[in-house]
Design brief:
Helix content is 24%, strand content 18%. With 372 residues, the protein is an alpha/beta fold. It starts with 10 loop residues before the first strand and ends in a 9-residue tail after the last strand.
Length: 372
């Protein structure tokens, strides 16, 4: 089930299913509203968005009520979450999935919102989005890439490609908006070569793991998994969470992995990540790409920007390895000999609205060798 694209004049509501809007400084909210309105969208806030308890969240009843009201209101065309946090999985037993399924709308957020977005997809088939929070729009510098692909993904119909961002960041930008640490981005890293096609599913691995063994966990058959984690997850934690994911029913039907860039504090480097991947016999033969801009900034208050990716499918997403690595692999793969190389990450018709079960994501041939 694919929600309608957002358009000029549409009302998009900020909802707080995890951290309260009351936790966010007014100046950052103001900048976020101006950015939002600059896209031609009208901004509204849920009734309980600023209710704030000792956990910087709000009561379950308030958060559930706000979500139900936003889905039921015909004037609201989409929702962006305020921020991530730790407790959106507490809402899952109380949501009216019949109401949500009858009123399909854009729902965009990441981090702790993985639990909410994934559960909604599992229970209703509604494609949801791993993308910027409302507060992400409060970033003054370093947001151009996010704005461009938010608009292409959620506000336009034509196909588009997603090349690597030209920089990444892991600085506490909310403390100093002017003196940013924007690091040049070398692009994607290829761990396993291969080609696969399937529905795109995933998000924050630590949060996704909260759904393991529950009725809120989607079927993994025929999926490409998009996985990211935060500074709280050291390599040993990512390793065991990944192993737990591998133990989930249906994992044998997974067709590839896309792993986001890790925060510096996580102490994960490419060699360590590759060692973790290579230690899992279940991943042998699966295409694995690491380091796209599905990553985060420091989580103390406001996370990093992110381009939207849909839970439940993403049309024609591909990865092209570096040219120096592409040809040796192509020469040793008879199926690819003489064929033109694919483009970078590309998104076909309907992209950004997701692909449901009909459209797919694809990882194109990649090389095992890694750039240093």
């Amino acid at each position: 089930m694919i929600p309608a694209k957002l358009g000029p004049g549409d009302e998009v509501r900020a909802v707080s299913p995890a951290t309260s809007l009351g936790f966010i400084p007014e100046e950052q909210r103001r900048v976020a509203r101006e950015r939002w309105e600059g896209l031609g969208l009208r901004c509204s806030f849920s009734k309980n968005a600023e209710v704030r308890d000792r956990f910087n969240s709000s009561p379950v009843e308030a958060r559930v009520s706000d979500l139900h009201e936003a889905f039921a209101d015909p004037g609201v065309k989409g929702m962006l979450t305020t921020l991530g946090g730790y407790n959106s999985n507490g809402l899952l037993d109380y949501l009216d999935y019949g109401l949500i399924g009858a009123n399909p709308k854009v729902l965009c957020g990441f981090s702790d919102i993985t639990a909410l977005a994934t559960a909604i997809y599992a229970r209703t088939g509604l494609v949801t989005y791993s993308g910027p929070h409302f507060t992400t729009f409060g970033m003054r510098r370093g947001l151009d890439y996010t704005l461009e692909y938010f608009e292409r993904c959620l506000m336009r119909e034509e196909p588009f490609e997603v090349p690597p961002a030209d920089h990444w960041s892991d600085d506490p930008w909310y403390q100093d908006q002017e003196n940013r640490d924007l690091v040049p981005n070398a692009g994607y890293e290829v761990i396993h070569e291969g080609e696969a096609e399937g529905r795109l599913l995933g998000g924050h691995l630590g949060t996704l793991s909260l759904l393991f063994g529950t009725s809120f966990m989607p079927d993994l058959e025929g999926t490409l998994l998009l996985l990211e984690d935060d500074e709280e997850a050291l390599p040993v934690h990512f390793d065991r969470l990944l192993q737990s994911l591998i133990h989930q029913p249906g994992f044998e039907g997974v067709r590839g992995l896309v792993i986001g860039r890790f925060q510096r504090a996580s102490e994960m480097d490419l060699d360590t990540l590759a060692a973790i991947i290579e230690s899992k016999r279940e991943l042998a033969g699966l295409p694995v790409v690491a380091g796209p801009r599905e990553r985060r900034a420091r989580r103390v208050r406001l996370p990093r920007p992110d381009y939207p990716l849909s839970h439940g499918g993403l049309p024609m997403a591909r990865h092209e390895p570096p040219s120096a690595l592409r040809e040796p692999f192509r020469k040793t793969n008879p199926a690819l000999a003489g064929t033109p190389p694919p483009p970078g990450w590309s998104f076909g018709p309907g992209s950004g609205s997701g692909a449901g079960n009909a459209r797919s994501a694809r990882l194109s041939p990649c090389a095992r060798r890694r750039r240093r």
